[in-house]
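Standup notes
- HV: blocked on the assembly model, inputs below
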Amino acid sequence: MPAPLIEMRGITKSFGAVKANEAVDLSVAPGEILGLLGENGAGKTTLMNVLFGAYAPDAGEILIQGQQVRIASSADALAAGIGMVHQHFHLAPRLTVLENLLIGIPGKSGRIDRAGGLARLVEIGRQHGLTLDPDLPVSALSVGEQQRLEIVKALFRGAKLLILDEPTAVLAPSEVDGLFSALRSMAAQGLGIIFISHKLNEVRALTHRCTVLRHGRVAGRVDDPANTTSAAMAELMCGHEIVPPSRGPSTPGQAVLTLDGISTAKHAGTALRDISLAVRAGEILGVAGVSGNGQRALAEVISGVRAPDAGRMTIAGQNVSRFSPREVQALGLGRIPEDRMTTGLVTNLPLADSMVLPRIGSSTFSAKGLLKPDAIRAFAEEQIKAYDIRCPGPMTRAGALSGGNLQKALLARELAFDPKVLIVSQPTRGLDIGAARFIHEKFLDMRAKGCGIVVIGEDLEELLVLCDRIAVMYEGRIAGTLDSANATVARLGLLMTGAEGKA
Amino acid sequence: MFRLEVRPSTPAWFNLALPLLAIAATLVLCSGLIALAGAGVFESYGVMFTASLGDSYAITETLVRAAPMIFTGLAVAVAFRAKFWNIGAEGQLLAGAVASCFVGAIPMPGPLAMLSMAIAGAAAGAAVALVPATLRVKFKVDDVVSSLLLNSVIYYALMALIEGPWKDSFSGYPISPPIEDSANFPVLIEGTRLHLGVIVALIAAPLIWFLIVRTTLGFRIRVTGENPEAARYGGIHVERVLISTALLSGALAGLAGVGEVGGVHFQVMSDISPGYGYSGIVVAMLARLNPLGVVPAAVFLAAVMTGAEAMSRATGVPAFLSDVIQGTALLAMLVALLFTAYRIRRVGAVP
Ligand SMILES: Nc1ncnc2c1ncn2[C@@H]1O[C@H](COP(=O)(O)OP(=O)(O)OP(=O)(O)O)[C@@H](O)[C@H]1O
Ligand SMILES: [Mg+2]
């Protein structure tokens, strides 16, 4: 095995009382793709932030090609040949692809070297299949393309090690293949890659070796991921076996949510065209589709954030087409948004505030316009315990929680009030398999209690496990609806590409 | 080398330490100017201190000056919590002063007159603040610009009033007729100017604190300010919250004007506010938008203002130093605020 490109030894990093990393050792060889696994909050992102210079470790050392280095900022990290693609991208939306690439790069005699930059951009694109239009503004790029730009940016700055923090969480399944072939091509040229993901089949397909974190410590290593079962890896991560949930038969009752000929004007994203759907009590309806085919508008209409321009929507028999978010909530609609940070939580305020946000006006949390701080705190504490949300307490800033824990917090706040209808987008995006399993179980419990659930998602395997029926969206329409019993990934995939529903 | 590092959490004692640090830095920085003006630094600050806080009379004078800045500071703090950028407290104060002067000139029994003045002044301030808020909510007009520009509009409207219909036909001075004697706010300590409005201002601060921290409106204001998208999805009418915030903020600024008319000047003239509305921004920032912090912050600025006049008389340093201290304090506080999110770390270079 070649000498390591990067070595981290005994890294320890605490946030107050939370030990995010404890004596972690990790190394990557040139040309190696290292998987970094661990439950939500295990400390993966923190460890990578230490390597990238965003946090100073409390103890431990970092070696680059055998030389001990101090990385005190991301500028230092870049200079040392470390590039990182964060979960949230750091791009300037109004600037073009090329301009973003050249930010912070001194050209000859203070001028920006556009021609040189363009040549490198084209070359990197050709080498690894990472093509980008240099003149498009970043705001016009899809999420996948923005990610591609982040990778190209790192390569442009001469990265020898590339860190990718859950890169596939934001990608459509079809985009994942492209990313993987680019990463493989980069590794073949001797780049070291650290790849973080919760999707174990991806990890098995891509990585050469894995380091598994649990509660901030190294729980173990996997030397041959391709020949290790997902179950074995999951056990290493969680410390116990994970059994997939089983969806028993259900006897759906009356329709709790119906959409009849719902259309919206093109506003932002794809417009809805003549959507008719019905969800019955005790039923889970999946909405599959490549993202960008109107899922967002659908979720907004159902949550009352956007009024449809035509059509009729009912909840529990009542016409709610023009209801506000608060009014549909009052009728028993629960909602778990796709974008936890922007539409779900208030990152700068205590977690407890986010947990009671949608129901602050209810008599549980306030009376006559006065808050009930004790009730709010008690509720948050209760949910933190019930859902095993890992955080120092209800007064922690919500933004300090790891992604998975944020998702659990959102789920907790909606399920605590026994919604009649639940609309969920990408429910397990970014969750470790233990947490995903837990959330699936909660949905199945809700289903057994007679809740009608709409799950919008891209992960077909997840939808097949969870849903009774799956509707496929294509260009703002429902391309077809299949019973899970006779749906397969292949048939759904066909509908998702717009091939006419012969089902 | 030193670098800024993101801070995982902000310790609670920062709320107190940062403003104190900012004030200390301000005094150090401004001592250079005093020296430049040819006066002794310690002597000058000494005069400022005794003149503003040295004896009980000085303290009452400082409090009288602090009262309007407590109100404008609260107005700004409330608005900024919701990220409604109300730079218009000055205009709202003037509107409150004019409205209360109108009402105060109507003969009424004292308590009724004072109450009516307060209501009229608050309503006028609220009405003015409603303009930038409505423009923002309905037409996405930048509230910083619109609220700031409105200050000039109100100021010149006031000038037109006192140069025109209100002009004292006997003396020819551009001042409004005085309010009724019965409408003058009672003085609380004989021989001072400490009036009822000062007490109202001191009570308003904890009330506004309670509103922000303990009421659903306060909750909605905080959430809307921090993340309007999450607020909207969470069923909060963001526009309604912004409008309510603007009304509240404008009403508070209006009350600053009421206090000046009812407790200090008993009429309206062109220089009724030496920029109390703008000082409110400094006050709110020094207080870190905490209504309870507004009181000490306003008292500090008031002490600087009263002190600077005395210092100017005693040492010849121009009284404008008070404006410089205010501006420097704001800048120092903005720098200090950086340290709530970041900390300085000493680092070595990468080999
Ligand atoms: N800035 C911070 N302040 C306080 N605590 C933090 C901070 N960043 C992370 N933590 C805590 O450190 C622990 C590790 O978090 P980290 O984000 O590294 O987890 P992760 O393994 O990346 O999880 P996920 O898979 O959910 O992204 C968590 O308990 C988290 O709450
Ligand atoms: Mg993470």
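- HV (later): unblocked. Chain A has a mean pLDDT of 89. The pocket of adenosine-5'-triphosphate (ligand 1) is lined by residues A 15, 18, 20, 38, 40-46, 390-391, 400-404; B 8 (CB under 6 Å).
- Next: hand off to the docking folks.
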